[in-house]
TrEMBL record:
Protein name: Methylmalonyl-CoA epimerase
Source taxonomy: Bacteria, Bacillati, Bacillota, Bacilli, Bacillales
InterPro entries xref list: Glyas_Bleomycin-R_OHBP_Dase (IPR029068), MeMalonyl-CoA_epimerase (IPR017515), MMCE/EMCE_epimerase (IPR051785), VOC_core (IPR037523)
Top-rank taxon: Bacteria
Domain VOC positions: 2-132
Organism listed in the record: Fictibacillus solisalsi
Length: 135
C-alpha cells in the first residue's frame, strides 16, 4: 500500500492553485467539479515531484468539505492510500471489524474507485482507500 494523494480543504481554489503551482512549482494535472450529492466540490489535482495533492473547495453548504472546514478549519482533509483491489481490501477490513462510510464509495471521472474508512478506527484521521481497476 502506498500513499496515492493528500486532500487539502481550501476556501479559494484559484488562489490555492496559484500557490501550489507558482510558488511551490507544482503542475496542475486536472481540474473538475463534482456536484454529486455528498461530494459537491471543486477539485484541482496538482503534481508535486511525483506526489499528488488534491485541492478541495466546497461548492455548497451541504458539501462534506464545507462541513470539515466549519468544524476543523482549512488544511489537510484526508490521506489516500492506493490498494491493489479495493473490493478485496474492503471485504478483508470488514472481516477485521473495520467499517466504512459507505456513502463515500464512488468512481471519480478519471477511473479511481474510492471509499473512506470510518474515522472512529483511525484516531480521527480521514483515510481514503482507492484503486484504479475500473480503467
Amino acid at each position: 500500500m502506498k500513499i496515492d494523494h493528500t486532500g487539502i480543504a481550501v476556501r479559494r481554489i484559484d488562489e490555492a492553485i496559484e500557490f501550489y503551482t507558482e510558488m511551490l512549482g507544482g503542475k496542475l494535472l486536472h481540474r473538475y467539479t463534482s456536484e454529486k450529492p455528498g461530494v459537491e466540490t471543486h477539485i484541482a489535482v496538482i503534481e508535486m515531484e511525483n506526489q499528488i495533492i488534491e485541492l478541495l473547495e466546497p461548492t455548497s453548504k451541504t458539501s462534506p468539505i464545507e462541513r470539515f472546514i466549519r468544524q476543523k478549519g482549512k488544511g489537510v482533509h484526508h490521506i489516500a492510500y492506493q490498494v491493489d483491489n479495493l473490493e478485496e481490501v474492503i471485504k478483508d477490513y470488514e472481516n477485521k471489524g473495520i467499517t466504512f462510510l459507505k456513502e463515500t464509495y464512488r468512481i471519480n471521472p478519471y477511473g479511481r474507485r474510492l471509499i473512506y474508512i470510518n474515522p472512529v478506527h483511525t484516531q480521527g484521521t480521514i483515510i481514503e482507500l482507492c484503486d484504479y481497476n475500473s480503467q
